[in-house]
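@here heads up, posting the sequence + SMILES for the pyridoxal-5'-phosphate run so it's all in one place. Ping me if the SMILES looks off, I pulled it from an old spreadsheet.
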Amino acid sequence: MYPSTACVLPARGLPHEILTPKLPELCMKLGSNAHNLDHYWMPFTANREFKAKPRMLVEARGMHYTTDDGRTLLDGTAGLWCVMAGHGRQEIADAAQRQLLTMDYAPNFQMGHGLAFDFAKQLAAIAPHGLDRVFFTGSGSESVDTALKIALAFQRSRGQGARTRFIGREKGYHGVGFGGISVGGLINNRRVFGPLLPGVDHMRHTLDIARNAFSPCLPEHGLELAEDLERAVALHGAETIAAVIVEPVAGSAGVILPPPGYLERVREIATKHGILLIFDEVITGFGRLGTAFAADYFGVMPDIMTTAKGLTNGALPMGAVFCSRHVHDTLMTGPEQLIELFHGYTYSGHPVACAVGLATLEIYQREGLLTRGAALAGHWQKAFHSLRDCPHVIDIRTIGVMAGVELQPRNGAPGARAHEAYLHCFYNGQLVRATGDTLAFSPPLIVTEAQIDELVAGVRAALLTVA
Ligand SMILES: Cc1ncc(COP(=O)(O)O)c(C=O)c1O
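bot reply: prediction finished. Complex structure tokens:
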């Protein structure tokens, strides 16, 4: 077991070096035997398999994690797509500590604090054009549910209260709230939780390996899939549809890219029919594609944009929903003393999360991380496409500093091959992510070209090893 934290927590006023807890060293010595694993029900994890052979992390610095048996892992996934500026950033830790001791918590219902306003203003300054009204949440899932609720409230506020349907997309991942799994399109995340939100329909996804395998850029084929939105309108009637939600690049389903013109066409159809367009940028936001947001990369502006993860460099849980002024102002009606949107979370605009977010943005801007991906993208693409000749690889997709390597599923055991490759990497020094039969990669944006090569070499070794 861990020792009592009372003996290792920093005391006020001592230099950071002296205060650094010795937990990592201690846990390394004790190994996973240090913990009773029975009580923690782990998220999105094969709990029994994991607990039989745990993979425990104890420390993170820069581009690396350390495991409890003292090994170093190159972080090929920015944690879970969120640690854009790398791990253990002093300014972020300082901002959190300062704010915890200044004002640890403050309600944001019918009162406020400066950090939330300052953070929203800074975010508005880097947001895609016009999306300058910001609603804070505690996670990506909360951001998605918030966006869906804002869309309903917007439609009702403009006298279109019959617009209650949402259109999502197959293979979409929009978190795990009931709204998010309703518009999401990953079967395992939905099937035991039905019947979900009524009236939701889905467009087809844009993954078409037969026609687009190994596309060096955006996939050539599939623009016609955008017409699925027209078909939904023809089927349900535009007057029943509040919003359409898509990830500009689908992440969790295995890095699925839109064909050229696809997002533009979805935008066009949505506008034509008075349907709000929501971009879920929980993964693509904050520099992943080499622009601040995917909306900038594709030059397509949504009406609402959901974010989280990179918002605070993953250091504290927080999300933000960016709205166009039109959406926002449409809701700023009625008597001024009345609450305009009956929605919010205890942790909306949490002062410590805002302080961490402000420190994060400062790092992003000072180090040019929101656009660094553009400079890395060429090397990244070339490095990953060099895996084309490895066994089992049936497709490789890259964009910005994001890659998916699709493996041939093993007969009767979907996902097993990618999981084994993930394990091989884990035990040989790289943290990668397996999602279905895809290996997904999204390192911190401080990654060097040499580290990209090291990551790819590790993946190659794994692919040459797994059966
Ligand atoms: C596109 C997208 N939306 C929403 C979410 C949910 O975010 P969270 O896990 O913070 O609730 C994720 C998480 O990976 C995501 O990738």
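MO: Residues 226 and 265 are 6 Å apart (CA to CA).
MO: One more: The first strand starts at residue 57 and ends at 61.
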